[in-house]
Amino acid sequence: MISIFIGSIFSSVILISSGLIFIKFFFGKKLINIDPWIAGIYGFITLGFFSLILNFFFPINKFIGTLFLLFSTVIFFFYFYNFKKKTELALIIIFVSVFTLIFITSANINRPDAGLYHLPFISILQENKIMLGLTNLHYRLGHTSIFQYISAIYNNYFFKIEFLNLPLASLFPLFIVFLFKKINEAFKTKNEVKIISIFFIIIFSFYSFSRYSNFGNDAPASIFFFILIISILNIKDIKHLKLNKFYNIAIISIFLITLKPSMLVVLPLPILLFLINKKKFEILKHKNSLICLVLIFSWILKNSLISGCLIFPLKETCLSNLSYYNGSVVDIASNEAEAWSKGFPDSVKKMNFVEYNSDFNWINTWFENHFNKVKEKLFPLLIFIIIFLTKNIINRSFYKNFSFQNIVNNKSVIMIIIFSFYCSIFWFLKFPVYRLGMSFLATLIIFTFIAIFISKHKTLYSRKIYITIIGVGLVLITIKNLNRIIDNYDLVYNNSPWPKIYSMNDNGSNFEKVFKKVSNGNGNFVYYYSGGQECMYSKSPCSNYYKKDLKRKKDNGYTIFYLNK
């Protein structure tokens, strides 16, 4: 646990330092004027894109990870020495580190997705520069998130390889600090809409993101969607939107797309804000526009190199003339993913993926299975909102003061409702599994109630009420996770305190495995075959599928996987 705690401190240092560099370069702020809790959030964006671009030319190995750790540490100490609010910064580091320790020690990585392609992809990144045609090895490698790139750069000579678990574990506590600071700002400006909306997001986050092993690639996307929503709350005049506010929304939107392909749904937002904005020329000539284009192009280029598609698995974006392109892999990835999200395994109808996805053949199965999950997860939020707003609902003055004009006048709230409704519709039609749409649905519920019942912007309760509820929530989460540690300490955590990266079995061993080598007809190594079990963090490249027709070659120093056609 000591090593986890020390690692958690350095994780905070890396994230804050990385964010400082990005904010200074992107927004032009002096280092000592940047809030550390903002820097920590932007640290994920910095690490993600830095690792992504670096991997075009180098493996993200221990040497690079160590250099980045040392560089981040130097930047942080310079920042800490010059930062006026040293106590506040120290408290943030302690809170994030302690909560990361509790969060990560109470869970094992045992989600199938982690073993199937998250951890194997991290291993690939750390041992190789970008590999072309990687989806021919395993189609799920085309679904990987930029978060795997963030994890990869945590590989260094000072810590165990399990250190790669830390950025995911650090995200939730940093997000809580971010929300707490944002609600504190709202109290100072007496902005009731911001207070209530951030408060409800905090409550939803407490019971949705309180368990590390449930994160995967989905939770980070949902968390950054909420960060995007809070950024939209700062918009007062769309036509004359300040450049920094526009670029803040733009960069978060781009990052969201790289976190989860389903988040492509947010792309119209920055485009629409650009089209409406009166400062189009200023935006076009600004250096940040070029940076945004480079970052999104880097992700598109990565997609095209590993899969042959600009946006995997969208077949309309695929380049069929590439030697490693495999249309059947794209079809499987696209049709299977959509069918599974619509409840295909629970269907009693005998049909293939394409048939099931067509003509709403999936709707009855979805309602009988997935809809219950949606109700189960969102019902607590709905009940809490209703109870909390009871004071305003039953207050007679509400009916006297209520008017649709008050709702319409709050442009940022209306924009969020329309935006989240559009995202929710897209989610329902294409990938209606709860974990992929929970942030859309929660946002829609929260802001719809706010629009109706907070029309006059009157303070519902004192600041103490809000802080007390948030404090109780943090205590409950802490107790919940500590209980997991205590209950399982002798059984699991005493021998394996870190989340496991080599085993899917809670009680099994956690040692590196070397699987069977698969060679081509000439005896040349192609990949490791795991015998049908999850590859986990093993030697790369690894797949749980046996690919007898898979070939491997080198071209200008780059590995290419292709099928013998």
Largest sheet, strands/sense/barrel: 3 strands, mixed
The count of helical stretches stands at 22
Shape assignment: globular
> Helix/strand/pairing class, anyone?
mainly alpha
Order of helices and strands: HHHHHHHHHHHHHHHHHHHHHHEEEEE
DSSP strand count: 5
Rg (CA only):
24 Å
Distance between the termini: 52 Å
Low-pLDDT windows of residues = none
Strand percentage, roughly?
Answer: under 5%
- Spatial order of the strands in the main sheet? 1-2-3
Helical percentage: 55-70%
What would the average pLDDT be, to the nearest integer?
88
Outline of the structure:
With 565 residues, this protein is mainly alpha-helical.
What does this structure look like?
The protein is mainly alpha-helical and 565 residues long. Among the domains are: 40 residues, no CATH class; 48 residues, no CATH class. Helix content is 62%, strand content 4%. The chain is built from 22 helices and five strands. The strands form two sheets. It has a three-stranded mixed β-sheet with strand order 1-2-3. A two-stranded antiparallel sheet has the order 4-5. A hairpin with a 2-residue loop joins strand 4 and strand 5. The relative contact order is 0.12.
What is the secondary structure topology, with strand pairs?
Blueprint: H1 2-27, H2 36-54, H3 62-82, H4 86-105, H5 112-127, H6 146-152, H7 166-189, H8 192-208, H9 218-233, H10 243-259, H11 268-276, H12 280-285, H13 287-307, H14 327-341, H15 353-357, H16 363-388, H17 390-394, H18 396-401, H19 404-409, H20 411-430, H21 434-453, H22 463-493, E1 516-519, E2 525-529, E3 542-543, E4 550-555, E5 558-563
Parallel strand pairs: 2-3
Antiparallel strand pairs: 1-2, 4-5
